[in-house]
């Protein structure tokens, strides 16, 4: 298998809105052909600013980004902001409500031959599952359908890079799942690199090839979804995924575990319940988050630390139950950077 080429390279991106306060601080990363790359972080971490810098809508104070080695120009350097090889889909979609879905999608390729327009339209209607809405106007569509039209229009002229700003934030869980699959299929079938920003870890884990975790304008870790989940760099990255257990070495001693000083992490599914008589401690169930196919119990250990434990759908526990907590075989507490 041939090694995929780097299509997008970002070098030391920085941007300040206020004197001495950087929204984006020395960001550097690359994206391969056909790769889905997610930037995750809490509100205000610099995700959307990064997209605007990449799309050419905003000028970086420092650094540059390159597509196939060609620098992305800022709005001060060209008549129309942006880059010919980069398409951006923003949260408001910016569709033409007076035109049909077909007209919206064909707009970027309106200067090509009628034959190509029809060919490309039919291809995009298929890829984005919009065949039955060809002659519908956007105002008659649901949020998920509008999102599909916006993506189809963005990739109509076959840009190698697609940028998505919080693409699924307004959609329910079922629609999110459908659209995640669609975007992933687009990346594979059309060999388009996708860079999207989100605060939702489920979206990032489900469709990304790699994830960049952002905090206060900086990238603190870039890794595969599995690595980010199992081997987060620090407490911030670990806690970005819910029901995470981060505990000091001193507290681990209550569980009969000796570790060098520092912080350690374990996911809820790495832990299991055992009979209290077999443990060196007593854990009391204080809270349950129920999700149907599973639940997460918050157990307080010896009136001190609280740990989340994953319970399968057949397990039945009640508030006040007393058990012991043990680490499952073949896993260990993961050491975090302070």
UniProtKB/TrEMBL annotation:
GO MF annotations, alphabetized: ATP binding; ATP hydrolysis activity
Domain ABC transporter residue range list: 8-241
InterPro entries linked to this entry: AAA+_ATPase, ABC_SmlMolc_Importer, ABC_transporter-like_ATP-bd, ABC_transporter-like_CS, P-loop_NTPase
GO biological process terms on file: quaternary ammonium group transport
Key words of the record: ATP-binding, Nucleotide-binding, Transport
Residues passing through the membrane, by range: none
Pfam families: ABC_tran (PF00005)
Gene3D superfamilies: P-loop containing nucleotide triphosphate hydrolases
Matching SUPFAM superfamilies: P-loop containing nucleoside triphosphate hydrolases
Superkingdom of origin organism: Bacteria
Name of the protein: ABC transporter ATP-binding protein
Species in which this protein is naturally found: Flammeovirga aprica JL-4
